[in-house]
Amino acid sequence: MTDYFTETRVYCVSLKQQASKKRVLALGFFDSVHIGHRKIIDFSMKIASDFELIPSIYTFDNDFFRALGTDEKLVFTLAERSAILTGLGFRPENIIVGTPSEEVIKMSGESFLDFIASLNVGAVVCGADFKFGAGGNMGAEDLKNWGKVNETAVFVMPLMTEWNRKISSRDIREYLETGEVRIAEHFLGRRYFMRGVVEHGRGVGKSFGLPTVNISVDSRKLIPAEGVYDTRVRLADGAVYRGVTNIGARPTFGEDKKAIETHILDFNGDLYGKTLSIEFADRIRGIFKFDSKEELRAQILQDIERVRSDTDD
Fold it and tell me: 192-309: what fold?
C-alpha cells in the first residue's frame, strides 16, 4: 500500500475499519453532479441494490482545481455536492473525499488502483472518459484490466451527449457565467444553487422598505453573471420562499464592490449567521444605475411582481 491514506479524508468512517460488506464505488470528481454524472450514479445505485453492495462515491475536496494550477471555479462546493449526494441515497460515511495534494496529483495509476483495492470494492462504475494517475496517463480500459485481474466488476458508462456535444461541467460553467441559468438547470437536472451564511450588509434595502439578506460564499465557488435573478430561498428548516437576488455592484449608490443580496418575499425574521440556499430560476435583467433611490425601488417592485407571477415553483 501507499501513503495515500494520509491524503484522504473519509466522512465518519476510518479506512482501517471497513465493513465486511463490499462496496460499489462510483469514480469521478462529480463537480456539478450533472445529468451525465447522474447516469453513473444511478447505475451504481442499481448495482448496489441488485447485488447488496454498499453504494459509495469518490470525489475531491474544494482545492481540486487549485491543486491542478488552474483558476477554474466549482459549480458546487464539497458541502453542496455532499447535500446533493446524500439526497440521492449515499450515506455521508460512504462519500469518500480525496485531498488533492501535490503528492496525490503526481500519484501513479498503479498506486491509485492500490488505494481503490483497499476500499473493499466489489464493483466500480465510471464514465468512458475517466482518467487517473499522474497526468491522467491511465483510463477506463486500464481500470477494466485491473478489474479482471482482481475479480472486481468494472462498469464503464458511455458518455451522455446532447446537441452533439458531451455533457460537461465546463459548458455548464459557461452558461452560468453568462447568466443562462435555465440552460444550466437543464444539464444539471436541478436548479443551480449556492449555500452561504447570512452576514450583515449596509441595510439600504431595509431603509426603503425592501430588506435584503446578504450571503458570503466560498471564494472557490462559481458565481453566475451579474444581474437580477428570480430565485427560491431555502432555509435550514426546509421552508422555501421566493426571492429576488441581485449579484453585482450597487451603481446607484456608487459602490463597485460585488455582493449577493436577496429580498425574500413574504418573510419576516432574523437570519443573521444562519445558512441558507439560493436556487436560481431565471435571470430577470442586468444591473443598471438609476437616477434615484425611488426609481430603483420602483424597478425592484416590478422585479418582485415578476417573481411572484412566476408559475414555476
Answer: Elongation Factor Tu (Ef-tu); domain 3 (2.40.30)
